[in-house]
Amino acid sequence: MTALPVTQPRILVAEDDEHISRLIAFKLGREGFEAVVAKDGAEALRLLGEGPWSLAILDAMMPFHDGWEVLRTLRGMPALAGLPVIMLTARSDPQARAGAEALGARFMKKPFDPSELVVAVREAMESAP
Question: Can you list the alpha helix ranges (DSSP code H) found in the chain?
Fold first, then answer.
């Protein structure tokens, strides 16, 4: 299978809150990214297999595989193991941040400023191997 070139950065947004996912997709679209929304963890895993992807934004709490499960699964997939990931969560405890960082993901607490999310997306993509 030949990999398709990524002409526009393609970002998976796995978020079960429709309002938040639309906000993220709108903001990313205005910044020149293609945002593809998954409404739950199962859909996120299916879409991840349909790459190519530039980055994934995962909500920590979703039905049918939470963001943590999705992150652990993709880290075990050779083609996606190095994919930059931003983990969104309402949790502010140090364990949540440490858990995301241990799996190579950036951590962003909800509620978030959409402009700060775009900055985090750009930084994560620039620092990706």
Answer: 18-30, 41-48, 67-75, 94-102, 114-126
Give exposure, 75-102, as e/b (b: 16+ Cβ within 10 Å): eeeeebeebbbbbbbebeeeebbebbee
Whole-model pTM: value is 0.90
Is the CA virtual torsion 4, 10, 14, 17 positive or negative?
Answer: negative
pLDDT tens string 55-101 = 999 999 887 888 899 999 999 999 999 999 999 998 878 888 898 99
Give the domain range for residue 88. 10-126
Q: Any idea what the CATH number is for the domain that residue 31 is in? A: 3.40.50.2300
Is residue 108 in some structural domain? yes
Instruction: Give the residue among 67, 58, 56, 21 at the shortest CA–CA distance from 128.
Output: 56
For residue 111, cis peptide bond before it (omega within 30 degrees of 0): yes
HSE on the CB side for 60, CA within 13 Å?
19
Q: How far from the centroid of its chain's Cα atoms is residue 87's Cα?
A: 6
